[in-house]
Write a structure and sequence with these properties.
With 180 residues, the protein is α+β, with helices and mostly antiparallel strands. It folds into 2 domains: 31 residues, no CATH class; 101 residues. The chain has 6 helices and 6 strands. 12% of the residues are buried. It binds zinc ion. The site of zinc ion has 8 residues, from loops.
């Protein structure tokens, strides 16, 4: 580790603390006494993606990120949402403990993540990833999405009236009784 100020190779660790996914070390150069910080991160074992044509390609976080970013372009997403999705997918992939993973598995993870995040981004990604052959395939995907939305929306509605109705009736009855 060369000192960023004088290039000296020797440095002394003056402070060391655990951070999220590694160790942060405060160092002091033995040559010029300048202080600088280094981060040590665990290098995950190499992970290869099996492409459609059976070729293997090393997993690239940047590539995953750029694909998701493209789908999310100009969508009103909360800050950090894309990074979190990429982090989650990456963590899940490494947790599988495999050295090779079919690209389709990663694609499905992205689809699932985007589906929860933003439906427009989801459809954009799906149209590229699933390679919708025609407008009918796209419509089917949209119908599924709309069906799920409707199912989600109808749940609270059917449960809502049960709760407020009874107390208000009881109150009305109580008032009527008091007036008599
Ligand atoms: Zn130095």
């Amino acid at each position: 580790m060369n000192c960023p100020y004088c290039g000296n190779l020797e440095s002394r660790v003056i402070d060391s603390r655990d951070v999220d996914d590694g160790v942060r070390r405060r160092r002091q150069c033995s040559g010029c006494s300048a202080r600088f910080t280094t981060y040590e991160r665990l290098q995950a074992a190499s992970l290869f993606v099996i492409k459609k044509d059976k070729r293997r390609e090393e997993f690239s976080r940047e590539k995953l990120m750029s694909g998701i970013r493209k789908a999310c372009e100009k969508r009103p997403l909360p800050t950090g949402a894309i990074d979190k999705l990429v982090d989650d997918i990456e963590a899940e992939l490494y947790q599988m403990g495999k050295s090779e993973i079919p690209g389709a598995v990663i694609g499905d993870m992205v689809m699932k993540g985007l589906r929860d995040l933003d439906h427009i981004a989801y459809i954009r990604f799906a149209s590229v990833y699933r390679e919708f052959a025609d407008i009918t395939a796209l419509k089917q995907e949209l119908d599924t999405l709309i069906g799920d939305e409707a199912a989600k929306a109808s749940q609270p509605v059917s449960q809502l009236p049960l709760l407020p109705v009874e107390p208000s009736l009881a109150m009305a009855g109580g008032q009527r009784r008091r007036r008599k």
